[in-house]
Amino acid sequence: MSIFDIKSVAIVGASNKEGKVGNIILKNFIKRFPGKIYPINPNYDNLYNVKCYKNILEINENIDTIVIAIPAEGVPEVVKQAGERGVKLAIIVSAGFSEVGKKDLEEKLSEYSKKYGIRILGPNGMGIYDPYNGIDTFFVDDKRLIRPKKGKIVLLSQSGAIALAVMEWLSSKNIGVSKIISYGNKIDLDEVEILRELKDDQNSKAIFIYMEGLREGRGKEFLEVANQLNRPVIVLKSGKTKRGSVAVSSHTASMAGDYEVYRNLFKQHNIIEAKSMGDFMIYLKTLAFYL
């Protein structure tokens, strides 16, 4: 299953309490998503006239994706149950994992991912905004953060804060997107996997990446996939100094890598490097005009 081909979604932590993460995500899907929606929260029988379930094991219909917005300690058990139910994708927006020293929780998630074949996006990210397919796990109310219209630009970012800032700027400039993906700690799906998914996506004509650092051993694969895309790939690499490399370790719990190595590889493989956030925005605006 493609991570963008979502036909049914269960939302764990769905709520009717205004401002709660699970409330915002549920309302996003009710507003935009054309497929089946299954709120999950043992405290409710229904939410916004949609039947609510105590857990995913109660649902007798096929579910291909689960969005998880509950405290970190409860996430592994939910992923385990989703795996047992045959769910193919878990989008985990919950924080509180290796970025705060709880590596053991991520190890459990990785174990269940391998055991059940369930792919994981996150944790500790904003997830996916895809206006073509009505997918929106970004947990900022759309009255505060206007969503960009449909377009041909893709933004990938480990950092949820950067994804939100660029999203707001794109909306203010009336620039459309095909997808914005914030993948946080990337314990499973990362830049390489996401680029592979985008290869045949006709709505995605230029790829912009805010990159903290590739996982160990993924550099060669990243370059190969980027070259196969046959479309512009623009990267803004954070952590250009040793101090900066430490500062961006909040998602990976590791150093972000030697900037000079990245810079030289980008040059050799025709990947455009934005030198600053200002340059990144200029590339966005210019390419959006021509696409």
Can you tell me about this structure?
With 291 residues, the protein is of the alpha/beta class. 33% of the residues lie in helices and 20% in strands. It is built from nine helices and 14 strands. It has helices at 21-32, 75-84, 103-116, 160-172, 191-198, 219-228, 242-247, 259-268, 277-290, and strands spanning 8-12, 36-40, 46-47, 50-51, 65-68, 89-92, 119-121, 127-130, 135-136, 150-157, 177-182, 206-211, 233-237, 272-274. Strands 9-8-11-10-12-13-14 form a seven-stranded mixed sheet, with helices on both faces. Strands 2-1-5-6-7 form a five-stranded parallel sheet, with helices on both faces. Helix 4 links the parallel strand 10 and strand 11. Helix 2 runs parallel beside helix 3 and helix 5 (191-198) packs parallel to helix 6 (219-228). The protein is globular, with a radius of gyration of 18 Å. The protein starts with 7 loop residues before the first strand and ends with a helix. Mean pLDDT is 92; it is low at 243-249.
Tally the helices: what do you get? 9
| Residue share in β-strands | 15-25%
Largest sheet: 7 strands, mixed
- Mean pLDDT across residues: 92
Tell me the helix content. Answer: 25-40%
**Count of DSSP strands:** 14
Summarize this structure as a short list of keywords or feature phrases:
291 residues, alpha/beta, five-stranded parallel sheet, seven-stranded mixed sheet
